[in-house]
Amino acid sequence: MILDLMFWNGDKDQANKLARLIADIEPAKRTDVIFLFSARYDTDHDAATVQYVKNKFPVETFKSTHMAAGWPDGPNKLIGDSYMNCVKIARQRNIPIEDEFVLFIEPDVVPLKNDWLDRIMKEYRGCGKKILGSWIGKTNSCQAHVNGNMCMRLDFWRTCDEIFHPRKRAAWDTNLWPYIQPHAAPSREIWNDWRLGLGDNPWRGVDFLWEPKSFQDEGNPLYGEVLSPSMFHGCKRTEGLDEARARLVDKKV
Fold this sequence. Notes:
By secondary structure, the protein is of the alpha/beta class. The chain has a single domain, classed as Spore Coat Polysaccharide Biosynthesis Protein SpsA, Chain A (Alpha-Beta Complex), CATH 3.90.550. It is 28% helix and 19% strand. The protein has 7 helices and 10 strands. A 7-stranded mixed sheet has the order 3-2-1-4-7-6-8, sandwiched between helices. Strand 1, helix 1 (12-25) and strand 2 form a beta-alpha-beta unit. The two termini are 30 Å apart. The mean pLDDT is 90.
């Protein structure tokens, strides 16, 4: 698996903090996960953080050459370029792209269990689909889609070449829902609350991250099922990372 951490200037500090936490959660060095730092064209990698993560993972770094900023062009161009780079990494390492996948994560992700990576890898391997992620029912496009923090097989571009750079001016994951959804499975391990921190869904404290979850949209394949996810996306502040470190690394909670 390639663990692809994508970031740009505005969230660089949070991304580096997340990267160090992910490294510290792992008890020993592992070779089955490649850690990829993917940065926008105007963002430099933090050399100290890259070196720190190398203590636990094989590390690759990537910097997009597309001079795109703002939403949605900035994220769209970065994820497209980064995905192409993941395919390149696999081929350079003689890894069959038909068997390997990438887990895209953004800096507002929080790991909730010590074995979060193994849980996600196991779920993906067993889902029988090319894509695994949190299934969202209502979006700004009024269509169901799988959130961009997802697992995607490295040969999915053969099904949808627009994954590289969507032509429409909207977020790539909502843009490509007609192509992604038929090949996707809803995840029990990857949870998304994209409205967390917004005015109508204020921050509810770090304990919210560890509460049981359930999908409330009847169109969701996992509707009503009680879930205990191992990864949370949507934490716009660093309290979640601090709490995860206290619980999973320092064992203070």
